[in-house]
Write a structure and sequence with these properties.
The protein is mainly beta and 303 residues long. It is 5% helix and 40% strand.
């Protein structure tokens, strides 16, 4: 993550503390991390134990949706594929370096939900627009090892994807899809091995409650719906089971989220506004959601 200062970067530790790692990042990767035309997707798998060691920590996309970089951790250093050719600490990933300077041709998609899974060894582009500006709603998957893009199914057409994640337990892509014409948010899932997405929940958003919504997978491989309201200064987390039904709930009434949520083996980590200008956000670690959740809670979060 960017530390907030130009050219400086940090990570959030399992205890919730922020730690600067700028000096541990190679020069080439720092330049790309500072490039505003490159967007990044870190692994959706919070449980590192289910991920192959030779898969990257994160993947970088250019403005057309093509993969232009992969991030790896070496011996005390963090670098990209461009370092593999000349840095001994990254020699194990040299076979992947062919991607550098020769970006993998993708489906030409912008504003897509970009999901990367170390467990699946794959990148998913969910929804978005074509490079010609036309609406596109397909789901595409790129296998890191075969280096081949393929379209998932033929009949999948999502309207406007707000967020998506990958669940290693069920091997599904879970998505939040917004139909702007009908002002409806849909929560559903699609498998890379099947043709049609299954929409599990629908909620109209004519009376908007939460302006921002994210889907994030926890260490158990289950989905969590995270919602935040700038107007109401509150946030909400609803844990979902394998059928995307609500199980547990967290409700914060004293601040909005100032950054997307993250998850690791210790739980879900939220960065919540402190309520005062120039004060750093509060880091809240949710190792377990204590309250039971109902369908009413889920539909409120979707609004």
């Amino acid at each position: 993550m960017n530390s907030g200062a130009p050219g400086r970067f940090g990570v959030v530790t399992s205890s919730g503390w922020r730690q600067e790692v700028t000096n541990n990042i190679t020069t080439g990767l720092r330049e790309k991390l500072g490039n505003s035309t490159i967007s990044w997707a870190s692994s959706a798998d919070a449980n590192a134990g289910v991920s192959p060691a030779d898969t990257p920590l994160a993947v970088g996309f250019d403005s057309a949706g093509d993969i232009v970089e992969m991030v790896y951790a070496g011996e005390g250093v963090i670098g990209g594929l461009s370092d593999a050719e000349h840095d001994e600490r990254f020699k194990a990933i040299a076979p992947f370096a062919k991607i550098v300077g020769n970006p993998v041709p993708g489906p030409g998609r912008v504003n897509a939900a970009q999901v990367y899974s170390r467990n699946a060894g794959a990148v998913f582009l969910v929804g978005g627009k074509g490079t010609n500006g036309g609406e596109e709603g397909e789901v595409w998957v790129y296998d890191l090892f075969s280096r081949i893009w393929r379209r998932v199914g033929e009949d999948i057409m999502l309207e406007g994807v707000l967020s998506a994640t990958w669940l290693y337990e069920t091997r599904d892509i879970v998505f939040l899809d917004w139909d702007s014409e009908d002002a409806v948010v849909r929560l559903g899932r699609v498998s890379p091995d099947y043709d049609n997405p299954a929409v599990v929940h629908e909620q109209d958003t004519k009376s908007l409650v939460f302006e921002q919504k994210w889907l994030i997978a926890d260490a158990s491989g289950r989905a969590n719906l995270v919602c935040s309201s700038h107007v109401a200064e509150k946030a909400m987390v609803v844990a979902l089971d394998e059928k995307l039904m609500p199980t547990r709930l967290w409700l914060g009434k004293d601040g909005e989220l100032v950054a997307p949520p993250v998850a690791d083996e210790a739980g879900v980590l939220l960065s919540v506004s402190a309520g005062e200008v120039n004060r750093p956000p509060r880091m809240i670690r949710l190792s377990e959601l204590s309250n039971p959740a109902t369908l009413e809670d889920l539909y409120e979060c979707l609004r």
